[in-house]
What we know:
The complex is a heterotrimer.
Chain A: E1 5-14, E2 17-27, E3 32-36, H1 43-50, E4 58-63, E5 66-67, H2 73-78, E6 81-84, H3 96-101, H4 112-126, H5 141-154, E7 159-163, H6 171-186, E8 190-195, H7 198-204, E9 207-212, E10 215-221, H8 227-235, E11 253-263, E12 269-279, E13 282-287, H9 294-301, E14 309-314, E15 317-318, H10 324-329, E16 332-336, H11 352-356, H12 372-385, H13 401-414, E17 419-423, H14 431-447, E18 450-454, H15 458-464, E19 467-472, E20 475-481, H16 487-494
Parallel strand pairs in A: 3-8, 3-9, 6-7, 7-8, 13-18, 13-19, 16-17, 17-18
Antiparallel strand pairs in A: 1-2, 1-4, 4-5, 9-10, 11-12, 11-14, 14-15, 19-20
Helix pairs in contact in A: 7-8, 12-13
Chain B: H1 2-28, H2 36-54, H3 57-81, H4 86-105, H5 115-120, H6 135-139, H7 144-162, H8 164-174, H9 176-181, H10 186-212, H11 224-234, H12 239-262, H13 268-288
Helix pairs in contact in B: 1-7, 1-10, 1-11, 1-12, 2-3, 2-4, 2-10, 2-11, 3-4, 3-10, 7-8, 7-12, 11-12, 11-13, 12-13
Chain C: E1 2-6, H1 12-36, H2 41-53, H3 56-81, H4 89-106, H5 112-141, H6 145-165, E2 190-191, E3 194-195, H7 197-214, H8 216-226, H9 228-233, H10 238-265, H11 276-286, H12 291-315, H13 320-341, E4 342-346
Antiparallel strand pairs in C: 1-4, 2-3
Helix pairs in contact in C: 1-13, 2-12, 3-7, 3-10, 3-11, 3-12, 4-5, 4-6, 4-10, 4-11, 5-6, 5-10, 7-8, 8-10, 11-12, 12-13
Amino acid sequence: MMADIAMEGITKTFGKVVANKNIDLQVKYGEIHALLGENGAGKSTLVNVLSGIYIPDSGSVYIDGKETRLNSPRIAAEVGIGMIHQHFKLVENMNARENILLGNKKGLLLQKEKLNGEIVALSERFGLKINPDQKVYDMTVGEKQKLEIMKVLFRGANILILDEPTAVLTPQETENLFEIIQKMKDEGCAVIFITHKMNEVMMIADRITVLRKGETVKTLTKEETSPQELAELMVGHKVDLSIKRPKTEKGRVLLEVKDLQAVNEEGIKTLRGISFKLATREILGVAGLAGNGQKELCEALAGLYPITGGSIEYLGESLVGKSPREISSLGISMSFVPEDRLGMGLVAAMDMVDNFILKDYYKQKGMFVDRKQAREKARQAIKKLDISTPGINNSIRELSGGNIQKVLLARELNSNPSLLITAYPVRGLDINVSYKIYDLINEEKEKGVAILYVGEDLDVLLELCDRIMVLCHGEVMGILDADKAGKEELGLLMSGEKTDKLGD
Amino acid sequence: MTVSFLAAAVVAGTPLLFATLGEIITEKAGNLNLGVEGMMLMGAVSGFYVGVTTNQPLLALAAAFLAGAGGALIFAVLTISLRANQVVSGLALTIFGTGFSGFIGQKLIGQVVPNNLKAFFKPFPFPLLNRIPILGEVLFSQDMFVYLGYAAAIVIGVYLYKTRLGMNLRAVGENPAAADAAGINITLNKYLHVLLGGALCGLGGAYLSLVYVPAWQENVIAGRGWIAVALVIFAAWNPYKAVIGAFLFGGLDIIGFRIQGTGFPVSLYFVDMLPYLATIVILVITSMKKSRENVPPKGLGVSYFREER
Amino acid sequence: MFRLVKRSEISRKKSIVIRLLAILLAFTAAGILLLTLDLNPLEVYASMIKGAFGSAYRVREVVIKTVPLVITSLGIAIAFKMLFWNIGADGQILMGAFAASYVALNYGDLPRFLLLLLMFVAGALGGGLWALIPGFFRAQWRTNETIITLMMNYVALKWITYLQYGPWKDPQAMGFPKIPNFTANAVLPKLFGVHVGWLIMLLLIVIIHVFLNHTKKGYEIAVLGESENTALYAGMNVKNTIVSAIFLSGALCGIAGMIEASAVSNTLSVEVSGGVGYTAIITTWLGALKPLVILLVSLLFAALLQGGSFIQTAHGIPESTALLLQGMILFFVLGSEFFIRYRVILRKE
Lengths: 504, 309, 349
């Protein structure tokens, strides 16, 4: 007896990388099926095949027992498959209604009233609150996700795929999402839920399929497994899922920020009176939903973002008005890994050597650039951080995401900073590499470096950092001791509930 | 005097209007086609050639339409299917179009449009609307090409903002990945609109050679294609505003003749610079003020490949 | 059914073969076009080759045409490397020629070396300052430089027309609208039968190669071309880099203008650029922004132009055939890049 939705022997390669290797997956209507695996295990590739985005090299998909060729998202939608992507596929300057209607076949003209009615009715049924006339660029992350779900439901999808939906949510929003998913299940939908978080799996899934390095490891039911077993299946060996936090004696205060204010190009306030202190031998974590001032804060500290008020003092010296170069030569390193992982900090088309000289080439004498030293440093970095690359003269675009991030970190650490500002350094990396990077950060801390760590994973923040500052709408909601704080508390702060805790 | 000037500005602005509208739909689909000048030249020479040899106005129009679309097809294959750089492909198209029109037009130099065609493109009062005071004379006592221009602007406006297909098109230009995920056929949408845009540019070119001049002269477009590209920015990708922009520049185009008649002491060559200078000024001013609504489609100039990661 | 796979790397040999194939295809396609006009493409091409290399004189003509093409392409390459679409080279050539002519016409009695040096500097300044205008707007407000640089070509052209028909008109030309010829001192001397522009060209190729690959400014331009955010992050002065690179880009075009006015037409006229500013866009792109490759491509294109004007006189085939061919070569090479980046795999059903 074949399952309602069956994928058999799916193989998909990108260049030399085998993302999916002979993968099988079977899902039933009325179940929540978790797809568990590390970053790079092939989860996203697999569901992209199911939703018609990627065409597999080989393998077949059966829907309701019939072999179906999913050559485009349109065909996938026609057989009832709907995917909620990790990076939302929404048109920013259209409103919710328009986004929902995109690609629908019915009618030539847009009938606003009638459609609004349908949208509201459907949203009530699933407990999704949506204003059809709201523009996407005015929505919060949570609202955007609900809109994504609405889009899929509106088309009558009964096989729903959610790709890492909780990565961008607060714990409270996550709970709300789980209620919605439960409703979908009750309505008879098949829900495929992608995650790499064990606790979420145990909370909501009926069955779990674990992927590792592009292959299926096992499918099991929730009742017969445990988080520990899942973690082992996922990583492939026994793992200790805790990050070591070396006990260090906090040193002197290195950085003191007081009442920092900033506005963006459109005149909207992005930083609203941020104040904190950061000492040597300390990691201060910054938590918050994406786009709540983290980027602006990092850039303001590095001299890249104009501030409108407040002060930044580094060893008693004001940084306000200093150029990025002056700031960096004081021993402050800032690296920000954006969502597309390149964009800032690295030049994709250049090789490791040219990327290594990016921040200090100007210190060389004369008008020429000498690359001899940088070549040597690049070779050392490859050894020290275990960077896999064809050579120091290959453009870093050819490297995998993890290796690109290692190059970035290697360059920043090369400058021997005394203040390390690092945002999302493990974005998209698998567990082994992530832990390697946590280790490097801890090593720096023990050396006496002050570290500002901006992250998204609350579990990691709680384990790695000494204190955690929560941002919402560019405002500090509270600064908590990592030892005493809990996820729920952080979540409430992230969604804008202020606390008077401003632990030093 | 003023009324006749305004009416003449509408005539001079009509080729710009066609080209601007063409580039608007091209860009709405996320394609920055800088080959407008080339496509206009291809349309101008093809329309003129067919018009002169067949003496059939409709065939001449069809030839211009197809020539513009043909130029756009080259661009489409290069940038959509083969993902070549859009800026360079557009420039190549302009160079090719210049060569093409010189090549075909060699034998046409000095020839004039046959009377039969001239009669076909003669101005006629538009029923009812021509009775509106002043506006009737300026806007509605023109030739059929001008009316076609109005119609094109309105049709494109309704299409873009009021229909489902137009909404899909905007999504393709704004965020092709989102449109693709919604099941919209990106390639088809891009091809169709690039081709249609090219066809409109071709018609704009033909207006110059068949009606405006009306004889064959080399390089008859004289930079109007580039002005049209600038007008798209000026009009903020809005077909209705394109009408205003095109007629404004039409006025600048003919102001030289008028000034000469008045004996105003300024060299003709400086007056000739006006449209180009005005384009520069307008671009600088629009770039100085930023807003959220008047921005180019976000996917403009970027090739889309579904499996890119 | 077929699908595409991104190539991770490709051997140099293979990519050259693909590009040569593309050029061959371009000639084939243009041949078909010639066939429809009842012309034998093989004869036309043979005739073009003869026109370009058939005699020592014609070879010299090819070199003379190569010089402005290479120098202008070098200028454009600097801008393109920064993703600044400078298509205003034609205007920059004209303004460079204008500034050099101003010196030549007013100080024609100066000693030869000094005069030529002054003209050279004036040419560079003329082209550079002209390019600085769009450069400034782009640096300041991110104004779209593509259209502005092009619009400025027309403004420059009208300006030269004004001079030629107005204040600078030669009173001894019996009403014919032309600017007086330069004095002998203002004309570049010859070396091996061709004006010394070719020597300047070779020098500039080396200088620009070193500039782009081994200097700080060259490095900054490359970073900026890849990502403005990264350049800011690295603490570079973005506005300063844009403005100085664009000045340099225009200055090179201006130098080409000075050479053309001095050595080729011996005066200033609206025809002094001869469309080089546009052709150079193609040669720059086909030359992959690399000075040495640009030299090779420019030689090919100069031969194409020379051959084109030969078939015009010999067979009465329109000169624009050469332009048409240029466009087609560019089309095919642009299209061929795809096959360098991707592999097409037929999918077995």
